Each structure stands twice: as C-alpha cells, then as structure tokens.
Amino acid sequence: MKALLRLTAILVATVSCALAGTEGWMTNWAEAKAKSKAENKPILINLTGSDWCGWCIKLHKEVFSEQAFKDYAAANLILMEADFPKKTELSPELKAQNAELKKAYLNEGYPTVLLLDAEGKKLSEDIGYLKGGPEVYVKTIKELLAKSQTAQK
C-alpha cells in the first residue's frame, strides 16, 4: 500500500511539473491562430521534445520559465507549443496536429522556434536555443519582429 501511495505521489508530482512547464503556452493550433488574429500579436511556436531533448529542456529552464520572458510574452506574443514527447502519450488529435506542424515548420531538429503571423506565415527563421537567458531571447525576438515589419512595408 505504501508503495502504491508513493507511486501515486510521484505520478502527481510529475504531471504537475509537466503542466506547469506549459503555463501560458497554447497547444491548439487553430485557437492560437484565432487568438493571434484577434489580439494582433505574432505567434511564437516552439516545436519541442519536452521530456527527452536536452536543448529543449535547457531552453525551457533558462528562458521560457523565467519571469522576464513570461512578462514580455504575455504582453506581446501568442505562445504555441507543438510537443513531441517520448514519455507522455498525446491524444490522437494532438499527435495529428503536431505532425502537420512538424511537416510545415520543423527546421533541422528540436527545438525549432519561429515567429509566425496569424495565418501561419513565417516572420523569422528558426531562433532555437540562444545562450544568454530571457534578456537575450527577448531582444532577439524584438529585433526579428522589427526586421519583419520593415520587410512587410
């Protein structure tokens, strides 16, 4: 019985950590595009292997989980995550959606992070992992968005 309780506690903690890791990130592509259009904000899409890709885990830990990034993103971006986990089973619908996003956007590997407009058109090349924490990441996003807006004029 104690072993079962211990296993249950570990499972709950693991699920809680997994859910906390996606805080603020949408997983429904159609909803992310609709929100992008309604709020007139670009989409930052993260194609990730959240539970097995070392660079993805590092990016989440050093950038996406930091308050400076969260604050900037909340005010300026729609966050979309397409996850390809090995330890977590996704619904068939989510797997199918993410497979389509992988075909459309995956660069050479994980993580692939892109800025997109509300229609899904690329506004940047792959940002991926950048050394320097949330400040460097936010600065890079701002520069890429400024460059994109200049190119559209």
From TrEMBL:
PROSITE patterns, per the entry: PROKAR_LIPOPROTEIN, THIOREDOXIN_2
Gene3D superfamilies: Glutaredoxin
Keywords on record: Signal
Membrane-spanning residues: none
Span of the signal peptide: 1-20
Taxonomy, superkingdom: Bacteria
One Pfam family per UniProt: Thioredoxin_7
Domain Thioredoxin span(s) in chain numbering: 4-146
Protein name according to UniProt: Thioredoxin family protein
Organism encoding this protein: Luteolibacter luteus
Lineage: Bacteria, Pseudomonadati, Verrucomicrobiota, Verrucomicrobiia, Verrucomicrobiales
